[in-house]
Structure formats: C-alpha cells, structure tokens
Design goal:
With 143 residues, the protein is α/β, with parallel strands linked by helices. The protein has one domain. The protein contains five helices and six strands. A six-stranded mixed sheet has the order 2-3-4-5-1-6, sandwiched between helices. Strand 4, helix 3 and strand 5 form a beta-alpha-beta unit. The N and C termini lie far apart (42 Å). About 12% of the residues have low confidence.
Length: 143
C-alpha cells in the first residue's frame, strides 16, 4: 500500500527566522495559516504523544528543515494514532536548508512514499518582509 505524506515548505528569511522559536512558528502555522482553533494545537493523542496540530483531515508536524528525519517519524506515528492524513510543514530558514528538503524528497521517493509539495508564500526568491511582520505580530499577541 502506498502511503501519502504531504509536505509543505514554509520558507523564511535567514537571520530573522531564528528570532522565532519552533513553538511560536508552530502556533503561527496551525492557527494563522491552517485556521485551526487553539484547541487543535499541541493535541495529546491516546498514547500520550502530542501532535503539533490536529485538523479534520490532517495531523500536522511543524519542524525545522535540519530535523526533517524526526518530522517524518513523528507525523507517520501521529497519522497511525489518529487515522488522519500526515502533513509536514518544513521550516527552511536559509537557502542552504534546501539540501534538507532534497534529502527528504529523495528518502520519501526511495521508500515509495508519494506526496504533493506545496510551497507557501514567503520564499527566498521574493520579498518576505510582510510575512515576517505578520509572524512577529502574531507572536507578540499570543506569547
């Protein structure tokens, strides 16, 4: 049986991205981007693990690119626990992080895991200042 893993890339500008913690970015992705309620963030599953976000269709893992291997294991486990489709938001903070994306892509392909890739607004190749300001405002209001 072919498994499907959805991977979305949240591409952030280098130095500025590290001003935000993984938890802050997780909340931003789940609440602002996916429009999930607060109750759908950091959801405790039946075995005691916590999914970053739990939507109607997807269970979500938000992870920095360098930890892509962790993200696959986590989201596949959460998917098994919830019977929801796995969705990974990979946070790239510099153009060099694309190497992690390519490693993830090669690994998933080698294991015959099919997945669509959707790139979110704010890539390295366009102005991303507005996205950074939006995240900063969200963090200031919620943390």
């Amino acid at each position: 049986m072919t498994k499907h893993v959805t991977v979305e890339l949240l591409l952030l500008l280098g130095g500025q991205a590290f001003a935000f913690s993984e938890k802050e970015l997780q909340h931003y992705v789940c609440h602002e981007h996916l429009k999930l309620p607060e109750s759908a963030i950091e959801v405790r599953l039946g075995d005691g693990t916590r999914a970053d976000c739990l939507g109607d269709e997807y269970v979500v893992e938000v992870e920095f690119a360098s930890k892509w291997k962790d993200s696959i294991g986590h989201v596949m486990h959460y998917s098994n626990q919830t019977q929801k489709k796995p969705l990974v938001y990979l946070l790239l903070t510099s153009p060099k992080d694309m190497r992690y994306y390519h490693q993830m892509q090669e690994t998933l392909a080698a294991q015959e895991l099919k997945y669509p890739i959707r790139v979110l607004p704010g890539s390295f190749y366009e102005t991303d200042e507005a996205t950074q300001k939006k995240i900063q405002k969200y963090v200031e209001e919620h943390f």
